Amino acid sequence: MKDKKTANDLLLIAGAILIALIALIICNQYKKRTTDNAYVVIEINGEEIGRYSLNENRELELETYNGGSNIVVIKDNEVTVTEASCPDKICVNHKAIKYNGETIICLPNRMTVTIESAGEKTDGKTY
Amino acid sequence: MREKHNNIHENTGLYKSNKVLIIVSISLIVVLTGLYIVFGRESEEESVWKYQSFDYFDTITEVMVYDSVSTDDEAALKSFIDERLSYYHKLFDIYHTYEGLNNIKTINDNAGANPIEVPEELSTLIDEAKLLHIETEGKLNIALGSVLNIWHLYRDEGIKVPSVGELVKAAAYTDISKIQVKGNFVLINMKGMSIDLGGIGKGYAAELLSQDLEEHGIKNALISLGGNIVAVGDKNGKKYTVGIEDPENEGTSKVILKIGNLSAVTSGDYQRFYEVDGKRYCHIIDPESLYPQEYYRSVTVIAESSLLADAMATALFNMDPMTAYEYVNSDDRIEAMWIMKDGTVNYSEGFRKYIK
C-alpha cells in the first residue's frame, strides 16, 4: 500500500512538472512571437520598396506591378491590405498579420508584405 | 486488523488533501511564471527616465536612468547632464577655443612655446594616454594630430589617398614623449605637433559622466556616448543587455552582452570611412603604418574603465590577430571580441562569460 502511494505521488509530481514545462515553452514561444522591434518589409516584383516599423501606425498607398495599386495599413502592431486593384481580393481578405515571418501576398500585383524581426531588443548598443 | 484499517483510511485522507494542495500550488506557479514571462519582463525593459542629445562629440548621447526620478528632478538632471557633456566637449575640442577655458586647442596652439594650465580632467587624461602609449607599444598615440589632419583633409575630399611621403613627413611630428605633463601644466615641446583625442576622448567623457551621475545620486543608469557604453549599477537587479552591432547588418546585433558596472566600447571600420577605387579607408589610423589596418571589421573591449576600453579598442584594431589575442589574454583588466572580415567572431579567453 505504502509503495503504491509513493508511486502515485511521483507520477503526480512528474505530471505537474511536465505541465509546467509545457506551459513555459508555450509562454516562451508566445514571447518570441511578440512583435516588438519588427519591420514590415514590402516587395514589389521581388524588389524591396520599403521597410517600416511595425510599431508605428501608417497607411501606404502603393503603385504596384503593371499599373496596379494596393493600400497597406500598419495599425496597432498589425498589418492589413485594405484595398487592391486586382479582381480576386485575396490579399484584402487575408487576416491581419503581426508575427515574424507572416506574409500577405497579392499575386496579380506581385506584392508581398512580410514581417521581419530586427533582432532582439537590448538596453544599449555598442558600435 | 481494525487498527490497521483505520490507519489506511487516515493515510488516504492525508494523501488526498496533499494531492489537492500540490495541484493548486503547481497550477499557481505555472500561471504566475507564465504571466511573469509574458508581461513582467516587458515592463522591466523600460528605463525610468531617458536623456538624449545630438549636440556633443559629433554623435548621439543617451542616458537611460533606472532609478526613480521625480518630475521636479527631471529638468535638473537634464541640465546637469547637458552641462557636464558640454564641458567635456569643449575641453577635448581640437577646433575651437572657449573663453575662460584652456582646452586641447589651447595646448596645440602653444606647441613649442608655452606650458598651459588645464583642468585636472585633461592633464590626468594626457598622463594616462602617455602610459597607454607605452603599454600598447605605440599602437595608441594621442600625438598623431599631424598625420590625422592629413587624413581628415583627404577624407573630406573623398577622391584620393595620402601618399606615403606626405604621411612620413608628418610622422616626424608625432613623438609623444615631447608632450610633457607637470601637475596640471601641459606642454607640447615641439612646434608643429598636435594632440588628437580621437581614440580615447569619448570613452573618457563617458567615464567622467558616469562618475558625475553617481555623485549626483544616480545608482543605476546606462550611458551610451555614441556607442561607448558605460553600465552603472544594474537594471532592477538584473544586468543590462548590450548588443554588439553587426557591421554587415547595421541596426542588428551580432552578439548580445550582459553587463553591470562595466564599460563596453567598439572600434570599427563601418561607421566613419571613405572609399577610393572601391577600397575602404576607415578613420582609425595605425600610428606605425600611418594607414588604416584591415584586419577586422570591429573590435569590442569590455573593461571597468571606459577610458581603458576605448583606448584598447583603438589599439587592438591596429594590432595583428596573434599579437592582439595574446595582448588581451595577458592583461586581466580587459576582454575583447573581434569581428573578422569574413564575418566570423573571435573571443579572448574570458570574453564568453559576458555573452547573454
Query: Distance between the terminal alpha carbons of chain B, to the nearest Å?
Result: 63 Å
Q: Tell me, what's the shape of chain B?
A: globular
- The computed structural class of chain A is alpha+beta
CATH class of the domain at 93-196 in chain B: Mainly Alpha
**Major sheet summary line of chain B:** 8 strands, antiparallel
Question: How many angstroms separate the termini of chain A?
Answer: 67 Å
List the helices and strands and how they pair.
The complex is a heterodimer of chains A (127) and B (356).
Chain A: H1 2-32, E1 38-44, E2 47-53, E3 58-63, E4 69-75, E5 78-84, H2 90-93, E6 103-106, E7 111-117, E8 124-126
Antiparallel strand pairs in A: 1-2, 1-7, 3-4, 4-5, 6-7
Chain B: H1 2-44, E1 49-53, E2 61-65, H2 71-91, H3 104-109, E3 116-117, H4 120-135, H5 145-157, H6 164-171, E4 179-182, E5 185-188, H7 201-215, E6 221-225, E7 228-232, E8 240-245, E9 253-259, E10 263-268, E11 273-276, E12 279-282, E13 296-303, H8 306-317, H9 321-330, E14 334-340, E15 345-347
Antiparallel strand pairs in B: 1-2, 2-6, 3-5, 4-5, 6-7, 7-10, 8-9, 10-13, 11-12, 13-14, 14-15
Structure report:
The complex is a heterodimer of chains A (127) and B (356). With 127 residues, chain A is α+β, with helices and mostly antiparallel strands. Chain A has two helices and eight strands. Helix content of chain A is 28%, strand content 38%. In chain A, strands 2-1-7-6 form a four-stranded antiparallel beta sheet, with no helix packed on it. In chain A, strand 6 and strand 7 form a beta hairpin. The longest helix of chain A has 31 residues. The mean pLDDT of chain A is 84. Chain B is an alpha+beta fold and 356 residues long. Helix content of chain B is 40%, strand content 21%. Chain B has nine helices and 15 strands. The termini of chain B are far apart. Chains A and B meet through helix 1 and strand 8 of A and helix 1, strand 7, strand 8 and strand 10 of B.
